[in-house]
Amino acid sequence: MADTFQTTTTAAKRNRSNNDTEPKKKLTCGDGDPAAALASTRHEFGEHGGVNMSIEASATFTVMEPETMRRMFTGELGPDRDYFIYSRHFNPTVLNLSRLMASLEGTEAAYCTASGMSAISAVLFQLTSSGGHVVASRTLYGGTHALLTHFLPRTCNITTTFVEISDVEKVDEAMIEGKTNVLFFESVSNPTLTVANIPELSRAAHRKGVTVVVDNTFTPMVVSPARLGADVVVHSISKFISGGADIIAGAVCGAASLVNSMMDLQQGAIMLLGPTMNAKVAFELSERIPHLGLRMKEHSNRALVFATRLKNLGLKVIYPGLEDHPHHELLKSMHNKNYGYGGLLCIDMETEERANKLMNYLQNYGQFGFMAVSLGYYETLMSCSGNSTSSELTSEEKVLAGISPGLVRMSIGYIGTLEQKWTQLEKAVTRLQEYGFPNKN
């Protein structure tokens, strides 16, 4: 199915808007705002002319002639010509969401999966084989770290070398030409908010023939890894892109050849492992992406305001939008400036006891947010990363990753007015300081 994303179907021609720009080409950093790319993506109308597309909820698809099915299974006929086999393979509604994700990230193609972890796993299975090698940031989401540290070596003999991603020379040394298949890192790391130098890391990897895979879950709209040199961008759509903390979903964005290979009937990781996205979920997400830019601007704006004010109160705040963050200038040079520096900040309370005390006050006294994992919700969500989303790491690995026992990760929401939420936050922090902690710097 090599041409799946290269041509436009007859049905699609009837259904798309006048601003369609297919086939899509990989964009460069100067090609502009992700919101503009989204607005230029073809618009699918409903079966009866509705402004929203119809949901194709069928698991399987009929054909008019017996010979057609044979041609579909040989790859001669495919979604590019409006022929669909089975929704574990391609589904029209999921394909529409995938086009939006490709536009968002500036890639040729994309396809959406049932979760962020399934997207990551499928990419790694597609790009590596038994005996393969991955170089990865030592600071990653705990589930990704566990996949690379335990699951892939046990099941597939795929090994990973973990490195400090901010040290490009160390990363370069760890990649072995002819052996290393993938360089994997997060645009902004979970949970320490370390910023990866995507252009430099990509150049180093490409010199050795290594594919660069970037998890951009923390910074959709804010950073565009593919425009900065990355080959593949993965997402947990469950977070900012969904925005409602009610959907589990993922996406793989990259070259059409990669996405098509992942859907291949004989060798495709998505096709054969089957992390299928439900068409109804794809429809809901397609309706949320158009206002993602507005949401990210407010997430980022409030995170910067709160980080600045919390620092002035004497707390140890980590936020890449602050000028004293070690990677502030790097992110400033890479980000799409209209969307700020992201919606996550960290407060280092040094000990788990202090972290728990802070979160307890913020939720139960200040009504500022909720103690919960995940991110990208309209309410603020907070967790102590060391004993939650990074709990898969050993104590030594947490130290190497820079994860303090008292590190509180906050995903800043946008509900209420900024000053209303700041008053709640300040009230809780002030009360804590009256009891002697956290001590002012």
From TrEMBL:
SUPFAM superfamilies: PLP-dependent transferases (SSF53383). The modification N6-(pyridoxal phosphate)lysine is found at K239. The keyword Lyase does not apply. It comes from the Eukaryota. GO terms for biological process: transsulfuration. This is Methionine gamma-lyase-like. GO terms for molecular function: carbon-sulfur lyase activity; pyridoxal phosphate binding. The lineage of its organism: Eukaryota, Viridiplantae, Streptophyta, Embryophyta, Tracheophyta. Residues 1-12 have a biased composition (Polar residues). GO terms for cellular component: cytoplasm. Keywords: Pyridoxal phosphate. It comes from Cicer arietinum.
